[in-house]
Amino acid sequence: MSEQRVRAGRTATIFAAMAALAIAAYQFLPDEMWWRTAWQVGVGWAGVAALLIGAHRLPRPERLPWWLFAAGVFSNSTGIAVADIAEAWYGLVDMPTPADPFFLGLYPTCAAALAILIRRRDARSDWAALVDAATITTGFGLLAWVYVIAPVNLGDSMDRLAHATQVAYPIGDLLLIPMTTRLLRAGGSRGAPFWWITGSLTAFLLGDSAWVVLDDMGDTGEALLEVPRFTTGLESVFLVGFVLFGVACLHQGAREMTAPADARPAGLGKGLLALLAGASLIAPAVLAAQTATGEVADGWSIAACSAVLFLLVVTRMALLIRHVERQADRVRELARSDELTGLPNRRAWNDELPRALERARRNSEPVAVAILDLDHFKRYNDTYGHPAGDQLLKAASAAWHAALRDVDVIARFGGEEFVVLLPAAGAGDARRAMTRALAATPLGQTFSDGPAVWDGVEDLRRVARTGRRGALRGEGGRS
C-alpha cells in the first residue's frame, strides 16, 4: 500500500471520529437556537471541506461528482442558517422562505452526481435496474401523492409558489430514490466509499420522511417536535448525511468509485427483493388504510399505481426469464465447447457425428473423418512450459479451422488430439484437407493424421457410441 493511500485512510478515520464526536456533542448543547444553528452549519461545512480536500487528491476527471456532492451539502447546510436568520430577524416562516432554495439545492446536485457515477461505473444499458428503480419510485410516489402532494389545497391561503415549494420536497426525494436504487444495481467497486454514499443518501431520505410523517400527525407531531431530545435526534440524522459524504471522499478507495465495472452485479439479492416487494405492497396497504377509515379518497390514484406496478412486475419477470434463458444457453454452449481453444469438445463431437453420418446415408454422399495428433507435444511442453503449450494448441486449432471448409467441423478430442468431420468428402478430399492443415500449422510443428471414409454400412449407433475409427475405413499417416 502506498504512503499516499495510508495518509488518505488515516485522514478519513480522523475525520470520521471527529464528526462522530461533534454529532454526539450536539445532543447535549444548550437549548439555544444560535448554538444549534452554528453547530449544524459547522458540521455541514466540515463535510463540504472534507469533500473538497478528498476531491483535490483525485485525478481531475474524477472530481466532478464529488464537487456536486459538496455543492449539495453546502446548499442544504447553509439553508439551516438562512432559515433561522429569516425567522429570527424577519419573521419569515411561511413557505416559501429564503431558505427553501438552499434546502432544495441538495436534490438536483446529488442526482447529477449520482448520474455521473452510474454512467462512469456502468455505461451499459441495464433495463432490469431501470425497472427496479421505477418500481420502487412508483410505490413511494403513491405515498408522496396521497399524504403530501394531494392534500395541498389550492384554495387555502397559500399561493401557488408556496404550493410548488411544498411539493418540491417530496419530488426531490422521489428524484433521489431511483438514482440511489440505480447506483445500488450498477456494477463497479463496492468498497467503503460506495456504502458511505449510500448511507448518506439514506439518511437524507429517512430525515425527510420523518418530517413528512410528523407533519401528517398534526397536533401529535407538533407535540413531538416540542420535545428537545426528539428534535435533536431528528436533526442529527441530517448531520450524519452531511459527514458521510466527506468520509467517502477522504477514503483511500474514493478513486475506485468511478472505475468501470468488470462484471454485472447479482440480479436479485434478498435486500433488493424485499424492497421491491415492499414497494409493490404500498398500493394495497394505502387502500386498506383508507378503507379502514370508511372513505377511499384516492381510489383512482391507487388504481393507477397498482396498474403501473403490475406492469412493472410483469416486465421484471420477463427480463428475469430472458436472463435465465441466456444463462442456460451460455451454460449449454460452455458444456459443448473446449475452454482453451473454443472449439467443440468431445461431447459436441459425439452429438454431431451420428447426425452427419445419417445425413450422408440419406443423401448417398461420402463422409470423411480425420484424427490430428500434434507430434512431440509433450517434449514441446517440457521445453517451453505449459503456457507455451497452451498457446500452441490455440494457435494450431485456429489455423486448422481457417484452412478447412465452412461445412467442416473440427473438435478437440482431448489433450493434443483433434478430430475433423468432412461432409461430402472422399478419400482424396480428406487428404487434400490434411495437406492444407499441415501447411497452416504454426511454429513449424507437424501432426500425425488418420483420415478415413465411412463405408456406409457400419451401424450408426455403434459409431455414435464409440466415436472410434474402427467404424471407418481408411489408412492413417503422418503429415
TrEMBL record:
The chain crosses the membrane at residues 12-29, 35-54, 66-90, 102-118, 130-149, 161-181, 193-214, 234-251, 272-293, 299-321. InterPro entries: Diguanylate_Cyclase, GGDEF_dom, Nucleotide_cyclase, Rev_trsase/Diguanyl_cyclase. Residues 365-479 form the GGDEF domain. The keyword Zinc-finger does not apply. SUPFAM superfamilies: Nucleotide cyclase (SSF55073). Keywords: Membrane, Transmembrane, Transmembrane helix. The keyword Magnesium does not apply. This is GGDEF domain-containing protein.
